[in-house]
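Field reference: sequence -> structure
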Amino acid sequence: MKKKLQIFKKKSVSYPLILIGLILLVVISNLYLQWCQNELSTDLMLKFAFSWHTEKFILGCLVLLVFLLFLISLAGSFLLGSVLYAITIAILGFADYQKMFYRTEPIYPDDLKMITEFGLLREMIGTVPFIVIVLIAAIALVFFCRAIYKSRLLSKKMQIVRVTGLIVTIGLLVYISDFNNPNNLLRKQYDKTALWIPYSQKMNYYNTGFMGGFLFNLKVEAMDEPDNYSKKTIAEITEKYNKQVTAMKDAEEEQPNIIFVMSESFSDPQHLAGVTANKNPLKDYYEVADKTYSGKMLSQNYGGGTANIEFEALTSFSMELFNPQMTTPYTMLVPKMDEIPSVVSLLKNQDYRATAIHPYNTSMYKRKDVYNVLGFDQFISEDTMKYKEKLQNNPYISDQSAYKEVLDLLKDDQQPQFVHLVTMQTHMPYSDKYTNIEYSSQGQGNKTAIDSYMQDIAYSSAALKEFTEELKNVKRRTLVVFWGDHLPSIYSDEIKEMNDEVMMHQTEFLMYDTQGSLSKQKTHDAITSPFYFAPTLFDQSDLQMTGFYQLLSQLEEQVPAFEKSFYYTNDKWNKTLKLTQSQEELYEDYRMIQYDIVSGEQYSLKNDFFD
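Structure field:
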């Protein structure tokens, strides 16, 4: 005798058939996620699921089944719960494919917080696909909410089944979310066959499956506790470097303005093998850079990761030292902290007025919350800017307008200013922005996008040169750190193959002094990482160093640049960190201090190490 489950008034389906349908839906959805992760390779998808990593594929299916049953229990309907599940998985897979295509890295759980950034998402994936996705999601949500409302009419017996299902699935999802707990049973099952590759999330997802990689990047401590971490150890480290700090030559000298400019996707395309052009789009940039301290900066990411580079530049803490699951400190770490030392807090203690400017909205990467924690006095966004001019069809506020905003702030010469500008003009997409393009690239790949990008950075380059000229009219000495956050994701696989990975992670940077007094002014081929910017600027400008900056300054001499999988030591690049004993001591001191601040007891804050 078959039991029947009433879903609609006029239809009934047997339990075995429902179970088979749910299992098929979960298996197909997991295959789809793996297909998207493997860049639409059906062969790799099938081999992963049924040949190479069957155990991990089954574990992923079990997690998806729990999620599916949660939605069904919530809706009180097998049909509508399954439909919403299918739409959710379809969008997630599409997003993963898009991110892999543009940035060669997978979707992380924390990326889901970007779902409300409708304007940016529309610009990234195109208006038509965006509208289609939004409409489908909206219609599904309407029916889903309607199902939840109508579920109150279910029989008492079905309500008990539904509530029990909700409680059980919610409990399981909470337990699954604790995946990185070493005692988690699901994690232990994965560990039997999984080879985790934390230094490369792309390979991590490939080797453990989309679901394995996604689970691996759920909540985790920012850093693991180093050996010998204690109040005494921190005291010894802070005392050592505080003793090495010398007083300023002239304590009465007027404090300079300090400007940080993180330029969206600013880089030299002709630095890459396989890319040439009819003329140099960075001509104006090099006219400035070749007269001051400049060179290449190592970016953590290709095609994205803006907030992480910004985090490093402002805090002088390195992403390389974090656990690999700490993918975006701006959203995962900083908003949860009451205080984090940075160049902002340092200058605020020296009576600077600190302003952040971003010609876009305030919600991106939780910047509004992050800037509050860092201690900025004000945050000027696209809504509050005075200058909002755009170039031709470019949807973003121009760099020239952003620089005018900075210059307006510098008119107040009663107080030294720290201004942190994050530009948007050169953000993707790179087509249909300009009616007349003066640059023509030669080489393999996306010529239309590369040509448009060259025009974009040419305008940006000209705006920077004009800005430095205008700064000469500012009474107070002004120091500028300018850098590109990452390369744009416009280069073909052929071009990527012609260049090693380091080349795809290097952007331009310069430091500029209106008085021309930087100590290494004539060095134009420096290699650095963004967490060195503040200590390097202070050192070269004869500003008062801190114990923390003294530590970083010494570390930079030994290890000029590093990110996960990219380490520059002894004038060469390595994929692993190879250090001498003296280099190891500096690196470990730095790691201990960073742990103390982001995951420890913040003992170093009480030792005047950052002031």
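Note: The first strand starts at residue 4 and ends at 8.
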